[in-house]
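Appendix B, example 12.
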Amino acid sequence: MAEALTGEAILAATEEVLRRYGPAKATVVDVAKALGVSHGSVYRHFATKAALREAVTRRWLDAVHEVMTPRFDQGLTAAETLRNWLQQLFDKKRRGHTEDPELFATFQVLVKESNAIPEYHIGHMVGFVARIISAGVETQEFVTDDVDRTAQAVWDATEKFHHPAHAQEWADPHVQDAFDAVVSLIIAGLRYNRVPSAAGDA
């Protein structure tokens, strides 16, 4: 007896089809063929092609979120944790762009197809930064009046090192020096400066 078709199996097959054909040519029929089922069977799990593509994008991003969840059990300071987390993110983006450029480009297309997906991903990532900053505030290593707003500022300040629009710049031989300088400036600011509250401080 054949195994029941699951949503997870469909998503895994969809990722492989997207890798093989690219987002412009991949179809639900291609996914169904890869699974040996009718395209109607796929539509019973995902009502539309757009829903399927959004689901596979979320699956891919959830894997990124799992890897990027910050750890606080390594005996590091908040500054070291933040630096390591930002470095891990930068390294992951660079590897994706250089080692599997087709898949990297494919998922950049998919992320842009849904208004909800970028917000979903950035919400997770800024949330991780906020958790690190909050830990630093608790130990009085960092100072800020608004953890969430500060986390967003850190994300924005490091955009060059994680946003795909800057991918071509990551091959610059001096990019690591630039990264180190920006992160050092951020950490210095978190240690010694106060970020104005949303209401606006004098």
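The two ends are 72 Å apart (CA to CA). The chain has a mean pLDDT of 91.
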